[in-house]
Structure formats: C-alpha cells, structure tokens
Amino acid sequence: MRKTLIVISVIIAVLTALFFKDISNYFKSDTQETLTTGISTKPVITDGVLILLKVQAVEDENVNSTPLNPEAMMNMQLAIGQRINVIGDIVSEISIIGEDRIALKIAKIDLLEAKEYVKRLTTPGRLTIHEAHPLHNSRNIEALPLAKKVANKEEIVPTYISLPEYARDKSGITIQDKIRQYWLIKKRIAVNGADIKLAQASLIQPGTVEVTLSETGAKDMLNFTSNMIQGEFIITVLDGIVVSATSLNAPSLSKRFVITQQANQEASADLAAALMFPLENSIDLIEMKLISK
Fold first, then answer.
1. CATH class of domain segment(s) 127-276
2. Phi, psi torsion values for 88, nearest 5 degrees
3. Any bridge partners for residue 283, and if so which?
4. Architecture of the domain made up of 33-124+281-291
5. pLDDT, tens digit (0-9, with 9 covering 90-100), for 148-172
C-alpha cells in the first residue's frame, strides 16, 4: 500500500512539473516570437548588430490611436522579414519583445551598415495617388507660392493639402533637407497602395519601379484618369512625400503604371519591396549595438 502511494505521488509530481513547464513555455512564446530569415535552420547570431525597434500605434485623422495587439505585431515582424528576404544574403533573427518592441539581429555587419538596413527596412511604404489642384495644371507658377502658404498654415484651400517634393542631386538621390517645391493635392485618395498586386524594379529602365494593381485598384485608376485631361498632373505620394508628379500621357491608365526618378537600381528595389510589404505602423529606432562572442 505504501509503495503504491509513493508511485502515485511520483506520477503526480512529474505531471505537475510537466504542466507548469508547458505553461511557462506558453507565456514565453507569447511574449517573444522569433522569425528567422536568410537560412533554413535557426541560426545563433553571435557576431553582428542588435537593433531594437519600437512600433507605434496607428493614429487616424483625428489623432485617435488604435492600440497594438499581438496580430499587429506579428504582421510587422512578417513584413520586415519579407523585406529582408527581398534584399537577400542576410542572416537575421526577428523577435517580438513585450507589447511594442521588435529586436532584430543581423549577422556579420557593422553599425554603419546597420544604419542603412534600418532605413531600408523601416520605411512604412504607404503609397497613395492623388489629383493635383487645377492651378498646377493651368498656371503652375501661381500654384507654387499658394502651395507653400498652405504648407506654412498661412492659407487654407478646402479639400486640399500641401505636401513637399524634395530636391535631388546630380545622381538623382533625394536631398532630405532640401525641399524642391510643395504640391497642392486633393485630400481624397484616388488609388490606394493597398491595391498593389506587384511592384518590381525595372530591368530595362534603371531608377524605375513597375507597379501592377489588383482588379479593384485598376478600376479605381481607370475611373480616376478617365475624368482627367491629357497633360494634367498625377501625384504619387509615399509616406507623406511627393515622389512623382507626372503628366497623364494617355487617355486613361488602368492596371499598370511606373514610378520614376529613383536614384539607382538598388533604390528602385527597396521601394518595390516597401510597396509590396508595407508597414501598417510607424517604427522608431531605440538602440543599436554590436554583439560578439
């Protein structure tokens, strides 16, 4: 009888230990999910850079925030991983830490290279296409000072906003602290980047991204451009910056269009990756540090 009780007690102890171990692993996995990119088996990165990022809650036009949830964090983790796979030749680990942190480890790079990767991986990639103010199409020389006044909050033009287009150097690279001009654009979005089916860097025209829209996006583009006159401006906005202001050169556009004026093939590939895998939330860099054995 005593032996039986001892055996039962041992079994209960073992089952209890396994139960609490499973519970512990469950909570651990819930707070830190790791996505591996670059190779098929999980690497242990001991030489490279650790990058800590903070994910911001989404704010609407009225500055009301949508709280972060596990699904949103996993979507962000996945999008960053997909961008890394497009870049290629990178061994990395992407982990969700707590409620709003992402830890990114990249093997065999230094801090200077890490800064460039952060820029390439954290660009939100939110693209929208808009109608320009009629004054840009008829008397652009008058539209430019008006757009600047609206940007400086000196004037208001109902249903329109003013966004900057940055200057470029001789090689076509954007000069971040030098605004070339402001554009008055319709607030209403004509075509949304969420309807992009495919974006890829052109192999024929360096500095150009070829975009293919979904059926919904193609219908929106057709409706938008069918009501325009050839020669009128189509304004493409990426993350609040005008990246392209091109004149309509056909009766209408539909499923396919291009975004030009990228600095080089690498810049085109980065933009294509950002458009294919946009980040729903903005990301702030908290810390970067070298890791070594």
1. alpha beta
2. 80, 165
3. 55
4. 2-Layer Sandwich (3.30)
5. 999 999 999 999 999 999 988 876 6
